[in-house]
Amino acid sequence: MYKLICLLSVLASIFLFKVQALAAVSCGRDKSPETCLLCVCWHESRGEEYDGKVAVLKTVLSRVESDEFPNTVCGVIYQPSQFTGISRRKSIKTKNPTDEEALNDCRKAVDVAEAEGANGILYFHTPGVKPGWSSKFKRCGQVDDHIFYTSGERCPAKLGATGAINRRERPVPKSSRGVN
Question: Which of 101, 151, 170, 173 is the 20 to 30 Å CA partner of 141?
Answer without folding.
Answer: 101
